[in-house]
Amino acid sequence: MSGCAGRQAPRSNATAAGIQRRTGLQLPTQRIASDEPSLPPGMTLNSPLSSDEAAALALWNNRRLHADLGTIGLAKADLLDAGLLRNPRFDMLFPVGSKPLEILVNLPFDALVQRPRRVAVAQAAYDQLGESLIQNGLNTIRDARFAHADLVQAVARVGVADRAATLRTRIAQITEARLRAGDISELDIVQARTEAGTAQEQLARFRHDLALAEERFRLALGLSVSRSAVRVASSPPLMESPPSLDVLLEKAMAARPDLRAVELSIATATKRARWERSRAFWLMAQLSSKGIGTNGILTGPGLSAEIPAFNRNQGLTSRAEADAQIASRQYLATKQTIAFEVAEARQLLLQAQEALWRTHQQVLEPLQRGAALAEDQYKTGEVAYLFELEQTRGLIDAELRVVDFEAAARRAHAQLERSVGTR
After folding, report:
1. How many domains are there within the chain?
2. What is the CATH number of the domain that holds 182?
3. SS3 assignment, position 102
4. Which pLDDT belongs to residue 415?
5. Distance of CA 7 to CAs 264, 338, 361, 371, Å?
6. Strand 102-107 relative to strand 89-93: parallel, antiparallel, unpaired?
7. What is the pairing mode between strands 297-306 and 89-93?
8. DSSP state of 6
9. Sheet arrangement for strand 89-93
10. What are the DSSP calls for 136-171, one per residue?
11. Chain center to CA of 103
12. On the chain, which terminus has fewer CB atoms closer than 10 Å, C or N?
């Protein structure tokens, strides 16, 4: 009778718990079933969103992630089905003419033997899917941080490009005034006009990039239906050097859910092979009742078995064994991929941090001092206004480079966290 009881998935919240353990962020307790965006408790779109808030909002509201999480219901249904037994079969032949009444009850005895193996396969497949969905959550967080970094970069680019366009337009105006005064030739003004037009074109392009970055940010957070304004908060990128590669690799091999999913796929295929071997034998317990003349109805037990002379389920057994071999090779390939992803992300972070530090120390700060000195000299009448503008132009170009390097550092850090599988 206990075998007839429904099998329940013992770890239906394992995916949510795994994501929270690795990231500190939560999934919603209920799945989103409408087009209206849903926000975590205490969060509002009225204030600028940080990178962590964007990641939390994406976990809470990303439609694609929630569609993927819905597949856990299929695995739970398979697990429930694996625990069920086949119903007994009842056959009755009516007494017609000289034929006696005959009743036959069949109980699939082989199902009792195969049930533990069948349940073990379904449970392993359920656990494997749960680990895979954790990886989907980590990917969603990474994409949200990418979108946040891109939007911060786009906003900063527009601000710097607007200053650059204003500055180059002012330089062109002063140059034209000098041309009218006869100080320079018309050939000398070509460069000033060209740079002013280039700055305006760059500003227009950055504004279009900003609009695209906003839409990508809404999509990553699941807010594409909402037309409400979304603002982001900018914070300095992480400049602390990451741990050594060996430390990161050790942590990644222990934390990456996709690697754990491949390990479980090996267990699933191995258990499925055992189950398929047991299916080569078919055995059914019988209870037969038959009317025998004046003796009434006589009842007696019996067995019905299939002789595995030709078909011993070789095909499905071989397929399960091949799946186990494929999963073993996939495990080695996944480890190699993880090692590359961690090494690449760490190197990209170091590269972005070094480029950002060098640009600050060797380019931006000297240009800031030069622009400040030029401003002081202009105020005292030592240099012309055009000379001060020329010094400021180089400073603005360096600021654009800093904005790009900061965005690269933020993206590299997000990719490193995803590659390691935990914060």
Report:
1. 1
2. 1.20.1600.10
3. strand
4. 95
5. 20, 35, 64, 74
6. antiparallel
7. unpaired
8. P
9. 89-93, 102-107, 282-291, 297-306
10. HHHHHHHHHHHHHHHHHHHHHHHHHHHHHHHHHHHH
11. 59
12. N
277-308 per-position pLDDT tens digit: 777 777 777 888 887 766 677 788 888 777 77
b/e burial code for range 207-222 (CB count within 10 A of at least 16 → b): eebbeebbebbbbbbb
The closest of 413, 420, 419, 423 to 149, measured between CA atoms, is 413
Q: Give the tens place of pLDDT for each residue, 189-226.
A: 787 788 889 889 999 999 999 999 999 999 999 886 55
Q: Report if pTM > 0.70.
A: yes
**In this structure, what token pair is assigned to residue 258?**
């996709």
Question: Could you give the CA distance from residue 184 to residue 179 in angstroms, rounded to a whole number?
Answer: 5
Helix, strand, coil percent values for the chain (each to nearest 5)? 70, 10, 25
> Is residue 15 situated within a structural domain?
no
Q: Distance between CA 416 and CA 247 in Å, rounded?
A: 13
* DSSP at 49: B
For 265-324, the DSSP string reads HHHHHHHHHHHHHHTT-EEEEEEEEEE-GGG-EEEEEEEEEE--SS-SSHHHHHHHHHHH
For the chain, counts of helices (H) and of strands (E): 11, 4
Closest CA to 195 of 403, 390, 398, 388: 390
The whole domain housing 89 covers 45-420
